[in-house]
Amino acid sequence: xxxxxxxxMLGFLSSLPDYAFDFSGDASDEYRYLYSAAPLGxxxxxxxxxxxxxxxxGWLDQQPSRVSxxxxxPRSPGYGQEIxxxxxxxxxxxxxxxxxxxxxxxxxxxxxxxxxxxIP
Length: 120
Hints:
Layout: H1 7-15, E1 32-36, E2 52-56, E3 66-73, E4 82-89, H2 98-109, E5 115-116
Parallel strand pairs: 4-5
Antiparallel strand pairs: 1-2, 2-3, 3-4
């Protein structure tokens, strides 16, 4: 099991707008930003300077069995870069509302759970 998310990461997760948890759409997209704190018009690698949420699904149009979602906090004074990754099985992709996903991710991130759906 991965380590639990840090307090800094939990604060970031809590501060995100609901649309950052829009886990729906085409799961075979290779790489897509769900949220970026970068100013409008920021291109390419400049996004790496800002907090962001990215999902990685299929590769070369292959349907994945799970989708990875990366919550990324860039380096800042006194802190290194932090990444918390969750994996969502495609059977759960698109099933829940953004608000419910946000609640689940925050609740389980504090426990170190990173695989969804969570099966007790």
